[in-house]
Amino acid sequence: MFSSIQELSDRLESAKYVIDPITLKVIFLASRMQKPLLIEGPPGSGKTELARVVALAANTNIERLQCYEGVNEEKAIGKFDESLQRLFLTTQGASWKGDWSEIRRDLHTLNFFVEGPLLRALLSEKPCVLLIDEIDKVNEEFEAELLEILSEWQISIPKIGTIQAKSKPFVVLTSNEVRRIGDPLRRRSLYLRFEHPTVERETRILELRTAESHPEIRAQIAGFGRALRGYSLEKPPSIAEMLDFAEALRILGVREITADLRDVLLPLIAKTEPDRKRLLLRDGFQSLMQDVKHYSQGVQDTGTQSEEQLCAARARY
Ligand SMILES: Nc1ncnc2c1ncn2[C@@H]1O[C@H](COP(=O)(O)OP(=O)(O)OP(=O)(O)O)[C@@H](O)[C@H]1O
Ligand SMILES: [Mg+2]
Q: Looking at the domain 5-77+116-193, which fold is it?
């Protein structure tokens, strides 16, 4: 998919995805070794987006299986198109000269099958990206079936038989850790752990993904995200929410985050009642603003230094 790490890096940069050098190498290895990539981490930390940008970077398409409780083979692999089979019988059945076993055979080919994302990925002539999103939502049985497909690169479909992959997709499995993914799948995958971003990384994401042109306010927003994540909230804000936050400030024409904006900003950053109450505490928001200042100053002045400096400040909460 990629001829060198540098090529992958350049293409991810063009796709506006911010990545550290180690993660970059792991992705390159996964593509070379044709190993699934298992990514765990908090909501909004860029797991799904990574699969999307890898497809973009490789100039290929993405097949996505969105997992949920009760997802089954039909959704993942596909099913016979019964109405098409009926239509075939109605229009062709009467004039059919051959025997019925032939009709039966013809009706049970891929021509009458609505392909699900797993089958589409294996039938793709060119390697695509197969995203199996939120795999922690499926049960162990389904996980075992996936395992078989991903290790043998073939799918068995009743009445059709075994279908071999035409190409091996680049597989990305994501999990929010609702259920622990089994060891057999872990064994076969390369594992990546995503965390909330550092202030520096989030500043860069804001630079690439928002229309905000002022570096100071970008650093302040990233500092704000960092401060909120250190504030023991029930639901700390994700990268996606901080991007929305930036957009809201832009719409409001705000050039500096100040405590008097608290009430209008709360719906963007406090998404549960306990979190809302906590941020409404007298002095709560004010002290948060102190941290924002330190964090955002850190990124503007010296890069990573602020993270360590502010451990002590975080301990206050
Ligand atoms: N490293 C990154 N570089 C650029 N943008 C990012 C990055 N990480 C996250 N984002 C932004 O955050 C958004 C949310 O990320 P994404 O949907 O991938 O999160 P997720 O980890 O899949 O969350 P969930 O578990 O809720 O599905 C992306 O659409 C993108 O705009
Ligand atoms: Mg996701």
A: Rossmann fold (3.40.50)
